[in-house]
């Protein structure tokens, strides 16, 4: 298996990359999680997009957001692994690449995420600490987490 990733602005994404990314997000966040919500929130245009590939097939992606878009801090959002690529340890690889990507694009600093609560231990292992109370987002329990 070969692993690779790229980080692109919205404008740099090809039509095929954009379609594959949005299709994957819809497949997991809307269909699999049975959560009808508006994924297209006008933040994609202001973000960098990390596309993670296994053997040249899109296996996951994240959205890297500068300060002031979702939170006062830099943020990582829309973290998703394709169902066909789960169980390979890609979540850690994807998040490590995303953290480094944030540092490259925005400089070192705290990173805030809005994590699905059941994944908080996973994010703890990457240096994120829970902050505040659990809240409902589109019918799924979430919690804000900060990596200092």
Which characteristics define this entry?
148 residues; alpha+beta; Aminopeptidase; seven-stranded mixed β-sheet; 27% helix; globular; Acyl_CoA_acyltransferase
Descriptive notes:
- With 148 residues, the chain is an alpha+beta fold.
- The protein has a single domain (3-110), classed as Gcn5-related N-acetyltransferase (GNAT) (Aminopeptidase), CATH 3.40.630.
- Helices cover 27% and strands 36% of the residues.
- The protein contains three helices and seven strands; from the N terminus they run βαβββαβαββ.
- It has helices at 15-32, 90-106, 120-124, and strands at 3-9, 48-54, 57-65, 74-81, 111-116, 129-137, 140-147.
- A seven-stranded mixed β-sheet has the order 1-2-3-4-5-7-6, sandwiched between helices.
- A hairpin with a 2-residue loop joins β2 (48-54) and β3.
- The longest helix has 18 residues, at 15-32.
- The protein is globular, with a radius of gyration of 14 Å.
- The model has no long low-confidence stretch (mean pLDDT 96).
How would you briefly describe this protein structure?
By secondary structure, the chain is of the alpha+beta class. The mean pLDDT is 96. The protein contains three helices and seven strands.
Report Rg: 14 Å
Percentage of β-strand residues:
35-45%
Q: Could you tell me the number of beta strands?
A: 7
The N- to C-terminal Cα distance equals 33 Å
- The CATH class, by name, is Alpha Beta
What series of H and E elements makes up the topology?
EHEEEHEHEE
Q: Mean pLDDT, nearest integer?
A: 96
The shape is globular
Structural class of the secondary structure composition?
A: alpha+beta
Q: Spans with pLDDT under 50 lasting ≥5 residues?
A: none
Gross CATH architecture: 3-Layer(aba) Sandwich
- Helix content range: 25-40%
Within CATH, the superfamily carries the name Gcn5-related N-acetyltransferase (GNAT)
């Amino acid at each position: 298996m070969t692993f690779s990733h790229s980080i692109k602005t919205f404008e740099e994404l090809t039509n095929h990359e954009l379609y594959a990314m949005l299709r994957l997000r819809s497949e997991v966040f809307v269909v699999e999680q049975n959560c009808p919500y508006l994924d297209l929130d006008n933040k994609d245009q202001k973000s960098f997009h990390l596309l993670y590939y296994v053997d040249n097939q899109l296996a996951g992606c994240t959205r890297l957001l500068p300060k002031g878009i979702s939170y006062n801090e830099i943020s990582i959002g829309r973290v998703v692994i394709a169902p066909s690529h789960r169980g390979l340890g890609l979540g850690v690889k994807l998040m490590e690449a995303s953290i480094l990507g944030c540092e490259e694009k925005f400089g070192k600093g705290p990173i805030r995420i809005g994590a699905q609560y059941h994944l908080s231990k996973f994010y703890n292992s990457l240096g994120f600490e829970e902050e505040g109370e659990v809240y409902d987002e589109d019918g799924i329990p979430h919690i804000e987490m900060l990596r200092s």
